[in-house]
Amino acid sequence: MQKVYRRCDGLIVLYDITDISSFHGVSSWLGEVGCYFTTTPQIIIVGTKLDMATTNRQVEFSQAKQFADEKGLQLWETSSKDGTNVEEAIMSLITSIKRIKDSDEEPTSTTQQSLLVKLSHWCGL
Predict the structure, then answer these.
(1) What separation in angstroms does the CA of 42 have from each of 39, 49, 55, 105?
(2) What is the residue-averaged pLDDT of the chain?
(3) Percent helix, percent strand, percent coil in the chain, to nearest 5
(4) CB of 45 within 8 A of CB of 16?
(5) CA–CA gap between residue 45 and residue 106 (Å, rounded)
(6) Dihedral angle sign, alpha carbons of residues 11, 31, 68, 45
(7) pLDDT band at 94 (very low <50, low <70, confident <90, very high)
(8) What are the distances in angstroms from CA 65 to CA 6, 24, 44?
């Protein structure tokens, strides 16, 4: 997996809002970040299948938002089917990456640095 993450400036961690088990997997994916990165990339969490929210939602927005806020990460809900928030989510990530690159600095968010430390502990690093 380390080669996949090499020189990665941003990550989109996806889960399906119609499948609670996929949301529970977000923590595991964030743990992967702690295992393979020495600096914190820009990360957003994206709930997919927003078009199915009224009939099949298993992950409430408030639940996902609380999780994202605790990690200091942005949360988006999108629909690939109708395009809702897809471009906005990607552009928010790109904007965050560009801001860091333009300043030629590492991310200074203490929340994100704290997240990397916590995630590293999950790997025993």
Answers:
(1) 10, 23, 32, 13
(2) 84
(3) 55, 15, 30
(4) no
(5) 20
(6) positive
(7) very high
(8) 28, 14, 11
